[in-house]
Write a structure and sequence with these properties.
Strand content: under 5%
Number of helices: 4
Largest sheet: none
Radius of gyration: 20 Å
Structural class: mainly alpha
Shape: globular
Distance between the termini: 61 Å
Helix content: over 70%
Number of strands: 0
Low-confidence stretches: 16-21
Order of helices and strands: HHHH
Length: about 100
């Protein structure tokens, strides 16, 4: 039993580290979404680009649209796809 009580702090530290690491992407996405929530001009500029892509027959979630926003905003493709979806939902629901 003494061995189990000595390993408990290590187990708790490992669990705490795992929780902190798991929260990282959530915090990063919150900051990402806040970047357009707090800057409507940025969101409207993204909307305008997505509308242009729609006119070319490309959806806001197409690989080309995601790559464009990722490149322009210096984001990973996954973050760019999340950003596109968020921007469309809040600022340009006419974009598909």
């Amino acid at each position: 039993m003494a061995s189990a009580s000595r390993s408990r702090p290590r187990l708790l530290a490992t669990a705490a580290a795992a929780l902190l690491l798991a929260g990282g992407p959530v915090l990063a996405q919150s900051a990402l979404l806040d970047s357009v929530k707090n800057n409507p001009a940025k969101a409207k500029a993204i909307c305008a680009q997505l509308k242009q892509l729609n006119a070319q027959g490309l959806a806001s979630t197409s690989p080309q649209a995601v790559a464009l926003v990722a490149r322009q905003q210096n984001l990973s493709p996954m973050d760019a796809e999340v950003l596109n979806t968020y921007v469309v939902g809040l600022y340009c629901p006419d974009v598909r």
